[in-house]
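REQUEST ID: PR-0412
SUBMITTED BY: lab tech R.K.
PRIORITY: routine
TASK: structure prediction, single protein chain
INPUT:
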Amino acid sequence: MVNCKINDQIVNYSASRAVSAIKIEDIAHVRFAAPDLTVMRSFLEDFGLTVFEAGGRLYGKGGDGRPFVHVTEAGEARFLAVGLRAETVADLETLAAFEGVEVADLDEPGGGKVVRLTDPDGYRVEVVAGQTKDVPADLLADLPRNTAASKPRFRSAVRLKSAPAHVRRIGHAVLKVRDFRTSERWYKERFGFLTSDEVEAAEGVPLGAFMRCDRGDKPADHHTLFLAQLPGELGLLHAAFEVANFDDLMLGHQYLRSKKRNQAWGVGRHIMGSQVFDYWKDPFGNELEHWTDGDLFTADDPPQKQPMSALLNVQWGAPHPLFAGKRPPPPGLIAFVTAAQIRMKSLFRRKPKENAA
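STATUS: complete
OUTPUT:
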């Protein structure tokens, strides 16, 4: 039992968690369309995925044994869907009954079942279960590290080989939304997400939240989904993939640079989630992240509130691209403009309701 302070009242956090249709256990995949699957394949292999084709689609898998974590279909370049993984097919049946839709066969590698939904912003959400799983690949060895406090590596030199990073699994996706509270409610009511950090553009003006899976007392990543009400067109901001460790991330960074791939941001360590990150763009403009060493929480850990500066700043490393130029805008100005836009949209949403009344 955990108590947290909300609006000057002590609230039992465990008791206050909302009831949902089901509780997903993780993200499953992201799905894209691209006009040239060969070009996409080359990038994904450089990024560290095991790539194969089936049924006219291009699939990328990690080392965790899951059938795929990245899908590309032929077509105009765009984001198509995010996949979430339910624990059982029975959970899919519960979700289907909640939504008034059917559970369908998943005619893709690994088989299984799927419930297909559309969220308030028109994003396709594919909830899967019952997929077959291969034997996971051996984990890359975590070499002992000598520090000022401990020196376990003795009479043994470090010799690393140039190679793509070893992607283990997909970790999270970030979606830009029109109305954060509407989207938050939709995802929490269906999938049981818990807020790890809610981000405010100004006090009382939330712009989004990092949300994790409710796995009870089992550790869960700081976030599986980040919903962000930010200026600009809707779309997937990025999808993130866990790699073996810090050396593996840096080797992947070096390899992608050697292949002249388009880096978006990195390397650095985030504040919220604490991950060491490295962002890259595929040839069609989609942003993918390598990460390692992220925070883990259980369902008993209460939500926190963070300012927008914690979203844009880093603990160390490359600054956010907004601040990378010779005359970067003040972070306070960015937060002020974002808060003003959110307030304005909220005002216009209320006016039609008031006029109708």
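NOTES: The helical segments are 13-16, 37-47, 89-99, 180-191, 246-258, 308-312, 331-356.
REVIEWED BY: pending
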